[in-house]
Amino acid sequence: MKRNFLLLLLAFATVACADTLEEGKKEVGDPNISVLPEVGKPDEIDNDVFSLLNLDYPGLEKVKAHYEAGEYAYAAHFLLEYYRSRTEVYNSNPDLVNPNLTDAEKRIADQALEHRYYVKYGGVESTDETTGVETYWSFLDADGNIDWSFLPDGVGYQSEFSYQKNRLQWMIPQAKAYRATGNEEYLKNWIETWWSWLEANPCPEGKTSKMEWTGLQLSSRITVQTDILWYYIYSENFTPALLTQFLKVLSNHMECLRNNWYKTDTSNIRLSQDQAYTIAAIMYPEFRNASTWLSEGAASISTQLDTQFLEDGVHNEFDISYHFGETGLAAFTELYAVALANDKLSLFPSDYTAKLYKATQFMKDVIYPNYSVDNFNDTRSARVSRNVLLRNFRTYSSMFPEDQELMWVANQGAAGVKPSYRSKAYPAGGYYMLRTGWDAKDMMLVHKSNANVKGNWHCQPDNGHFSLYRNGRRFLPDAGVYTYDDEATRKVYASTYMHNTITRNKESITVMNGRLLKQESQQNAELIVTENPGYADLTHRRAIFLVENKFFVVVDEAYGPASDVTVNLNFKLCADNSKDGLGREVCVIDEQGAHTVFKDDNNMIFKSFSETSDGYAFLQGTCYYSDEINTNVQRKYYQLDVAKKSDLAARFITVILPYGKPETFAENVIEAQFTDNAASPAGTFRQSGASVKVTVNGVVYNLSYTL
Predict the structure, then answer these.
(1) Are the C-beta atoms of 60 and 51 separated by less than 8 Å?
(2) CB neighbours of 640 closer than 8 A, spacing ≥ 6?
(3) Distant-in-sequence, close-in-space partners of 119: CB < 8 Å, separation ≥ 6
């Protein structure tokens, strides 16, 4: 009933306003033109908006004349006419010619008509087992009204559900559906829903702690409002009265944000606010405060670029999804595009693009050759699809067309020049890459030892960790983040022990201050050496060799005054719940390591050796990794333990060798030993470097480094 009543009022207002103007041809100042109510539902002109606008702005001459004459219906009419015809403001986000509505967006739009609103994290009431189609929760109460306090029972991640629902994430897909189909029901549903939300959540004055009007909720709604006008404004149901209401609400959001900036200037939340605020200021220059908004926003964005990204281009959260996403690189590239299109680049520093370029280089280097990512820190790899990455790389390449290697990545090798380097270091961020090549079949290792001295929340305590890819398969997937809601469970997945690195008594490290000791191209190997003082009395040094572009050798040394502790070398493997063609588990724990037996002949051998034998133990078991919130996959692990004495180090060598057919596994013979302690006790540590001898199938490789 409430919905039908609102739509009836809307239809009446449309006809009434049209009749007033048609009979019109009345002179400015005619006292017989009625003045509609000032505030209320979307069918009522809000006269306050005219005081919020700069009526001297070019194009608003008729609006000003009618407003000063008290002819608000005419003023609103010409305001709508102005917005429908303005060309000096360019917004590339809404594609009005080819909206490119996806099936998923169409389902979001259609379910919104039934008041089933798309909400990230816990927003699915059910999923069809056959088609995979999701049904979102209904927000209608028993009386048929929208209940904005709705919170589904039994849904994990409830706090995030509360945040996300107030970001109104279904409104842009619904607007795209309107533009693609011309179905006015989408617009009418938007009006009903939007004003229902505003009635339930009135804009506060001044400082507020209301969740609905702070954080990402506020900036997300500004972003929605910034774009949505382009989709709907040509509709016969988008009335002059509705426009006045819409603009006032947008102004309220902007002023509320000015009074409630996020508390931490370097946070991704603050960046999202700055981005939304600045773009809205560019898109709506007619507001009286637009120039103030723009100068404030541009100044803050310029500062954000320095604080959000480290000197080597890695995002300060050390999380890949934050690095390239809407609260990271995407925010700055979108701002660049909007500023360029609207001749506002002069507001930003001259090195703006140079800093963005570094960030794009990191993305080029950290993705796997099949255009996927791992779960480093709080990255949820399931959300980072190939299409998403390619779309972003096309944006980067368009910004930096002179970079032929970036062009090659953006075009999947169809244009540009294939990169040729095999190693890359990002020491400020603490990410290091070794690879056999750039094609999907190649092998790639990503090692991380983040310099997270500030303790940024999205960075997990796993320094020394690495993940491994080959030919489309992740052999050592990162543990990921299973949940944000349950802190105890979150700590389990984030723990050092859940990663492929060294621990002391299986405890998590207390210091994340990783540093690069050496990057070197040797005659027969590429080398990366890093170090992290993870515990007060124990430091972990890890050297990784890519030998003759064929296999990896990992040399680990845990040194320091710690004594009477157990040092654990941990390797968490890929999923063990799959079977090969013979019904065997695909991850097999064997003597001193593990190997896989995938039937596609894309397999890997891991074999670890300890220099000392005191307290030696070889352990195995099962654990989990998570590619998406509230989902996990079981896998196997193996662990080498040794007892550490105060005057000696725990030292290990691990050989990682790719091989083919499972039946050929036994043909691979691997041996390894340290060669720098012939005249010293086993476990002696040298600050200057290390030397090892590795034998693979009869071929001897002498590997060493000197600092």
Answers:
(1) no
(2) 568, 569, 592, 608, 610, 616, 617, 618, 619, 652
(3) 136, 137, 161, 164, 165, 169
What is the distance between the alpha carbons of residues 459 and 462, in angstroms, rounded to a whole number? 9
Q: How confident is the model at residue 638 (pLDDT cuts 50, 70, 90)?
A: very high
Query: Which one has a higher pLDDT value, 18 or 240?
Result: 240
The tokens describing 348, both together, are 């930003």
Q: What are phi and psi of 309, to 5 degrees?
A: -115, 135
pTM of this structure: 0.80
pLDDT in tens, 356-399: 999 999 999 999 999 999 999 999 999 999 999 999 999 999 99
Distance of CA 127 to the CA centre of its chain: 24
3-state secondary structure 5-21: HHHHHHHHHHHHHHHHH
Q: In the structure, what pLDDT confidence band is assigned to residue 592 with cuts at 50, 70 and 90?
A: very high
10 Å CB burial of residue 212 (0-12, 13-18, 19+) is buried
Whether 154 shows a pLDDT value over 80: the answer reads: no
Domains and CATH numbers, the chain: 2-85 (no CATH), 423-706 (2.70.98.70)
Enumerate the β-bridge partners of residue 672: 694
Do 422 and 528 form a contact (C-beta atoms < 8 A)? no
What average pLDDT does range 51-65 have in this prediction? 97
Nearest to residue 49, comparing CAs of 25, 92, 79? Answer: 79
Tens-digit pLDDT profile for residues 326-367: 778 988 998 888 999 999 988 888 888 999 999 999 999 999
Distances (CA, A) of 521 to 364, 518, 546, 554, 621: 21, 10, 10, 16, 37
C-alpha distances (whole Å) from 584 to each of 285, 403, 577, 578, 581 are 66, 47, 10, 8, 7
pLDDT exceeding 70 applies to what percent of the chain? Answer: 92
The Cα–Cα gap between 1 and 14 comes to 20
* Catalytic pick among 74, 82, 322, 637: 322
Whole-angstrom CA distances from 206 to 213, 252, 256, 274 are 11, 11, 7, 18
Report which of 682, 689, 684 is spatially closest to residue 705, judged by C-alpha positions: 689
Give catalytic status of residue 421 as yes or no. Answer: no
How crowded is residue 69: how many other Cβ atoms within 10 Å of its Cβ?
16
The pLDDT, as a whole number, for residue 155 is: 66
- When mean pLDDT is compared across 308-317, 466-475, 688-697, the lowest value belongs to 308-317
d(CA 624, CA 620): 13
Tell which residue, 420, 437, 694, 438, has the closest CA to residue 545. Answer: 694
* Model pLDDT for residues 230-264, shown as the tens digit of each residue: 999 999 999 999 999 999 999 999 999 999 999 88
Dist. CA 405–CA 416, nearest whole Å: 6
CA–CA separation, 335 and 279 (whole Å): 7
